[in-house]
Structures are given as C-alpha cells and as structure tokens.
Amino acid sequence: QVQLVESGGGLVQAGGSLRLSCAVSGRGFSINPMGWYRQAPGKQRELVASFGSGGSINYVDSVKGRFTISRDNSKNWLYLQMDSLKPEDTAVYYCFYARYWGQGTQVTVSS
After folding, report:
1. How far is CA 53 from CA 20, 33, 56, in A?
2. What 8-state DSSP symbol labels residue 61?
3. 52-86 per-position pLDDT tens digit
4. pLDDT score, position 64
5. Which residues contact 77 (CB under 8 A, 6 or more apart)?
6. C-alpha distances in angstroms, 15 versus 37, 43, 74, 89, 110?
7. Which of 2, 77, 86, 111 is least surrounded, with the fewest CB atoms within 10 Å of its CB?
8. Cα-Cα-Cα-Cα dihedral sign, residues 33, 44, 61, 111
9. 89 in helix, strand or coil?
C-alpha cells in the first residue's frame, strides 16, 4: 500500500522560508504525476506545483519564482522549497503521487 507522509510545515513570518518534504513509501518512484496542492480556509484546493508524467514542471502563477519543487528518486522523497512567503500562502499543503495523497501539513505565514 502506498503511503505519503508530509513534514516541514509550521509558522513563519512573511518573507521567510519553509521546506516541505513528502516521503512516499510502498512503491518506487516511476513516471507518475506528483506534486503539491494547498487549501486555504474557505477556498478551493489549488495545485501549487507538480511534475507531469513526462517530467515537466508546473507552478501556479502566484508562486512562480518563489517556490521550487524537487524530488529524490533514489529515496522516494518529494520536496517543496518555499521562499519569500506571503500571508496568502497560508494553507494546508498536501503532497500527491499518482492517485495517492498525504495527510497534509499546515503552513501559516504571519504578516
């Protein structure tokens, strides 16, 4: 069974940085979509950053130039480096791999 476990969320001041990590267990990385969604209170879930099945990388416009998605195929880890954080980045962040999801990690950015 595939399991995803996120870590690295927390409280940070505006302008600060956080690095989210997602450990994928149960199968090795293969050519499947993977990435990060977020959901803020009262808002729809938003795709933040992702690797496509062909390896392409996509970011939502609001995080371009500030967030960087990466992965370690040898260790089955997925990362999201978040720099220059803004209060509007506050949300629960979820990693996904193919059709599997993590439990989410809270990111709170204070102004």
Report:
1. 21, 5, 7
2. G
3. 888 799 999 999 999 999 999 889 999 999 999 99
4. 98
5. 21, 22, 23, 24, 71
6. 21, 23, 32, 11, 9
7. 111
8. negative
9. helix
The Cα 10–Cα 39 span in angstroms is 15
**pLDDT for residue 40:** 96
Q: Which two tokens stand for residue 26?
A: 């149960």
- CB-neighbour burial class of residue 56 (10 A; exposed 0-12, middle 13-18, buried 19+): exposed
Q: For all residues of the chain together, what is the average pLDDT?
A: 94
Enumerate the H helices of 13-106 as residue ranges: none
CA distance linking residue 9 with residue 31, whole number of Å: 27
In this structure, are residues 103 and 6 in contact, taking their beta carbons and an 8 Å threshold?
A: yes
The DSSP bridge partners found for residue 4 are: 24
Q: How far apart are CA 49 and CA 29, in angstroms?
A: 17
Q: Which long-range contacts (CB under 8 A, 24 or more apart) does 45-49 make?
A: 45/94, 46/91, 48/80, 48/93, 49/80
Going through 40-97 in order, the beta strands assigned E by DSSP cover: 46-51, 57-59, 67-72, 77-82, 91-97
The closest alpha carbon to 14, from 49, 66, 80, belongs to: 66
